[in-house]
Design brief:
It is an enzyme of class 1 (oxidoreductase). By secondary structure, the protein is of the alpha/beta class. Among the domains are: 24-229, 3-Layer(aba) Sandwich (Rossmann fold), CATH 3.40.50; 235-398, 3-Layer(aba) Sandwich (Rossmann fold), CATH 3.40.50. It is built from 23 helices and 25 strands. It is elongated and about 105 Å long.
C-alpha cells in the first residue's frame, strides 16, 4: 500500500507500465480459435478436456436442469433465492427504464427529405459467466436480463462445466430466473470461439457480453469483428473520494453477525477498498483523502481488517501491487485526478457529494454518498456491474440494454425542395471528391430539363441555355445562363477550365432564354427551392457574346419579377471590359439599383503566370489597367483560381505580385470580397493543371487577410473554396 501526495500523482501515473498484450496468451488463444473454426464441437470438447474440470459429450444444458436448480436453491438456500429474486427484479426494472430512452422516429428534415431511426435488437446474444475462483452468479442476471428486456429473441449463456458435466448449480438457478433461452456447459476461450464462429451444437451469436479471465478477454479481442462484444474487461478497480463526514454505523453491521463494526469514515473507506481488492491480485483499490492524518487512519484500518479477512491473501497481494492512498490539497485537484484515473467504480464518501457530480466525467459507475456502497451495484441495486476497466471509462460506459440494440437510420425521399437541395449538394460534394459514380448516382434521380422539372444541370457537353446547379460559392441553388450552347467561345484558354470541347446544333436566342429561365424559376418556386442567384457563366466568356446586353436586360427584368431576393451575377474574365459599351453596361448595372454582382477573374499577378494560367492573346498590362479603371467605379468580387501548372504551384514572386494587385484594387474601396478556389473537377487541360492542397490555398488567403487589415468588422471577406 502506497501513500502519495497529489503533487507526485502525475509522475507516478505516467510511470505505470502500460498493459501490453501477453503474446503467450494470444498465441494459445489463436490456436483454440483455429481449432474451433476447423473442427467445431470436437475441438470444443478437446479443449474442455485439457482446461476444464470435465468435457461433457452433450454441450447444451437441458432447460429442465435450470428449473431443478432453481427449485433446489429455493428449498435449500431460501435467503439466497430471495436475494437473487430481488436483484433480478431491480435489474429488470432498471433495464426497462433504460430501454424507454431508445425509440423509433421519422423526421421530415426538409420538404421531401425524411430521416429516421429504428432501434432493433440483435437476433442472438450470449453471456459468458465465469466460474473459476468464485462462481459469479450475479453476472448471469447482469448480462442476461438487459438482453431479454432489449427484446433479443434468443439469449443464451455459457459457463464451464464442473466434474458432473454441468455448470455450477447456482449459476443455473440464476439463469432460470433471468429468463435465458439456452445454456451451454462450455468455458474458456473455446466457449468464445464457439459462440463467435458457430458449431453444429452452438449457434453463432451476434454479440458476446460478460467478464472472464485473460484467455476469455483475448478471445473476445481477437474475434471482435466476426462477433460483437461489450468490451474487453481487465482487472477490476475502485476509486473512493473520502473525507471525515461519512455517517457510519457505530454498533456493528446488521444481518452479518461476524462482520467487523465500522468505526469511522477512514474505516468505511478501508472496508470498501478491501471489497475490491479481494477479487484478484491484479485488482486495484485507491482512495483520495484530504489530509495525511486521514490517509494514515485508512492504512491502519486496512491492516486491522486484513488480519481477520478470509480472503486476506488475495486482498493483500492486490494492495501491495497497486493499492494507493492519495492526499489531495483542493477539490479541483481531486476531481482532476479522478478523471485521469477513470475508475471502473467511483465512490463519493464526502460532504455534499452531489456538488462533485457535474465535474466528474470518467467512471464506469458512480456511487453517490457514503450509503451507496459499490457492492450494492455489484449485486442488488439494479445498475449493472459489468463496467469498463483499465481507464477505458474515458470512452466507454458499462453493459446495458444498448449493447443488445442496434440504432439504425433510415432515409425516405419524396419530391420536394429539401430532396432536391440534398441531391444537388450530393452531386457537388461527390464531384469535389472525384467520385464520379457517386455523382452519377445522385444525378440519376434527376430528369432532363423540361417545363415540369428543375432537376438537371449543365453537362460538360454544353447544350442547355439555362441550367440549375448547386453552387459551392453561391451556397445553394444557382441558375446559370449559358450564352454559348453550341460551342465554347472564350478569350482565355485556361488549362483548368471544366468545359470540354463540344459542338451542338442548339442556337442561343434571348426569347428562348427568357422562356426557359421562367420555367426553371417557376419550377423552383413550386418545389419551394430558394434560388440564391442567376448567373451568367456557361461555355465561355459571356460578355463577348453579341446577345449579352439584351440577355442581361431580360434576366434583370425576370429576376425582379420572379425572384427579387436573388442576386444577378456575371462571371467574367474581364476581357469584355476592353469594350467601352460592355464596360459602361457592367458599371452602371453594378453601381446602380440593379445591384448586378460582378465576379471578376484575377488569376495572376505577373505576366508570366498569366500566360500559363489564362493563355490569352489579350495583353496582361492592358487588361490589368482596365480592371483598375473599373475597380474605381463599381463594386465587384475577385475570383482567383489557384492550382499547379505542370506540377508547379505559383511561385512566391507570383503570390506577392497578385496580393499587391488585389491591394491596389481594394484601395478604391470597391471590392466586395475575394474568392480563392481550387481545381475540383476534371478538365480538358489535365494533367497540365492539377489540384493543390487546401493548406496552400488557406495560406494564400491568410496572407491576403492580413494585408487587407485582418478580420475586423469592415474587413474585406476572403473565402476559400477547395
Amino acid at each position: 500500500m502506497r501513500i502519495l501526495v497529489s503533487a507526485d500523482f502525475d509522475s507516478y501515473w505516467e510511470g505505470l507500465s502500460v498493459p501490453v498484450t501477453d503474446e503467450g496468451v494470444s498465441a494459445a488463444v489463436r490456436e483454440v480459435i483455429a481449432g474451433v473454426r476447423k473442427d467445431g464441437d470436437a475441438a470444443v470438447r478437446s479443449y474442455a478436456a485439457r482446461f476444464d474440470r470435465s468435457s461433457p459429450e452433450t454441450l447444451e444444458v437441458p432447460m429442465s436442469a435450470l428449473k431443478a436448480a432453481w427449485e433446489n436453491l429455493r428449498a435449500e438456500e431460501p435467503e439466497l433465492a430471495a436475494a437473487l429474486e430481488l436483484a433480478a427484479g431491480h435489474i429488470r426494472r432498471f433495464a426497462e427504464k433504460q430501454k424507454a430512452q431508445f425509440g423509433d422516429f421519422e423526421y421530415e428534415m426538409s420538404p421531401g427529405l425524411f430521416t429516421g431511426q429504428r432501434v432493433i435488437p440483435v437476433q442472438r446474444a450470449a453471456i459468458y459467466v465465469p466460474s473459476g475462483r468464485f462462481p459469479l452468479i450475479s453476472t448471469v442476471l447482469m448480462g442476461a436480463i438487459p438482453a431479454v428486456v432489449a427484446g433479443v429473441p434468443e439469449v443464451m449463456a455459457v459457463s464451464a462445466p464442473l466434474e458432473d458435466g454441468l455448470p455450477d448449480r447456482r449459476i443455473l438457478a440464476a439463469a432460470y430466473i433471468a429468463g435465458l433461452h439456452r445454456v451451454f456447459a462450455i468455458g474458456g476461450a473455446q466457449a468464445i470461439a464457439a459462440l463467435a464462429l458457430g458449431t453444429k451444437t452452438v449457434p453463432r451469436v451476434d454479440i458476446i457480453a460478460g467478464p472472464g479471465n485473460k484467455y476469455v478477454a483475448a478471445a473476445k479481442r481477437l474475434l471482435f469483428g466476426e462477433v460483437g462484444i461489450d468490451f474487453v474487461a481487465g482487472p477490476t478497480d475502485v476509486l473512493i473520494i473520502a473525507d471525515d463526514t461519512a455517517d457510519v454505523p457505530r454498533t456493528g453491521v446488521s444481518g452479518a453477525s461476524s462482520a467487523i463494526a465500522v468505526t469511522d469514515a477512514a474505516d468505511l473507506a478501508a472496508a470498501d477498498m478491501l471489497a475490491q481488492a479481494e477479487h484478484d491480485p491484479d485488482a486495484r483499490a485507491r482512495v483520495l483523502v484530504p489530509n495525511r492524518d486521514f490517509a494514515d487512519r485508512v492504512a491502519v484500518a486496512l491492516e486491522k481488517r486484513l488480519a481477520v479477512l478470509p480472503t486476506a491473501e488475495t486482498a493483500r497481494a492486490s494492495l501491495d501491487a497497486g493499492g494507493l492512498i492519495i492526499v489531495y490539497e483542493t477539490k479541483d485537484e481531486a476531481l482532476r485526478i479522478a478523471n485521469t484515473i477513470a475508475p471502473e467504480h467511483l465512490e463519493l464518501q464526502v460532504a455534499n457529494p452531489e456538488s462533485w457530480v457535474p465535474a466528474l466525467k470518467n467512471y464506469g459507475s458512480l456511487f453517490i454518498g457514503d450509503m451507496a456502497a459499490e457492492v450494492l451495484g455489484d449485486y442488488s441495486a439494479g445498475i449493472n456491474h459489468t463496467l469498463p476497466t483499465s481507464g477505458s471509462a474515458r470512452f466507454s460506459g458499462g453493459l446495458s440494454v444498448r449493447h443488445f440494440l442496434k440504432t439504425v437510420t433510415t432515409l425516405r425521399c419524396e419530391k420536394g425542395s429539401g430532396f432536391e437541395e440534398a441531391r444537388l449538394a450530393a452531386e457537388c460534394i461527390a464531384q469535389a471528391e472525384g467520385l464520379i459514380a457517386h455523382r452519377e448516382s445522385a444525378a440519376a434521380r434527376s430528369k432532363p430539363l423540361t417545363p415540369g422539372s428543375i432537376e438537371n444541370h449543365r453537362s460538360r457537353e454544353g447544350g442547355a441555355l439555362v441550367y440549375p446547379v448547386y453552387s459551392r460559392r453561391s451556397r445553394g441553388l444557382s441558375v446559370g445562363i449559358n450564352l454559348f450552347p453550341d460551342e465554347k467561345i472564350c478569350t482565355f484558354d485556361c488549362p483548368y477550365c471544366e468545359v470540354f470541347p463540344f459542338k451542338t446544333d442548339i442556337s442561343f436566342s434571348v426569347p428562348l432564354m427568357e422562356q426557359t429561365l421562367r420555367e426553371v424559376l417557376s419550377q423552383a418556386h413550386s418545389q419551394s427551392i430558394e434560388v440564391k442567384d442567376i448567373c451568367f457563366s456557361g461555355n465561355g466568356e459571356p460578355t463577348i457574346s453579341p446577345h449579352f446586353p439584351a440577355a442581361l436586360e431580360a434576366a434583370l427584368r425576370i429576376r425582379d419579377e420572379l425572384v427579387p431576393w436573388a442576386a444577378l451575377v456575371v462571371i467574367t474574365n474581364a476581357t469584355g471590359l476592353l469594350n467601352d459599351r460592355i464596360f459602361e453596361l457592367l458599371r452602371s448595372a453594378a453601381a446602380g439599383k440593379a445591384a448586378l454582382r460582378i465576379w471578376l477573374k484575377l488569376d495572376a499577378g505577373t505576366e508570366a503566370w498569366y500566360s500559363r494560367m489564362d493563355q490569352s492573346s489579350v495583353p496582361f498590362d492592358s487588361l490589368r489597367a482596365r480592371i483598375r479603371e473599373f475597380a474605381a467605379l463599381a463594386p465587384f468580387t475577385v475570383q482567383t483560381m489557384i492550382c499547379a501548372i505542370d506540377g508547379a504551384p505559383p511561385s512566391a514572386e507570383e503570390a506577392t505580385a497578385w496580393e499587391r494587385l488585389v491591394l491596389d484594387l481594394a484601395g478604391g474601396g470597391k471590392i466586395r470580397s475575394v474568392q480563392i478556389y481550387g481545381k475540383a473537377r476534371p478538365s480538358p487541360g489535365d494533367p497540365q493543371a492539377s489540384q493543390l492542397p487546401l493548406s496552400f490555398l488557406e495560406e494564400r488567403a491568410a496572407s491576403l487577410r492580413t494585408a487587407l487589415g485582418g478580420s475586423g468588422r469592415d474587413a474585406i471577406p476572403v473565402e476559400v473554396f477547395p
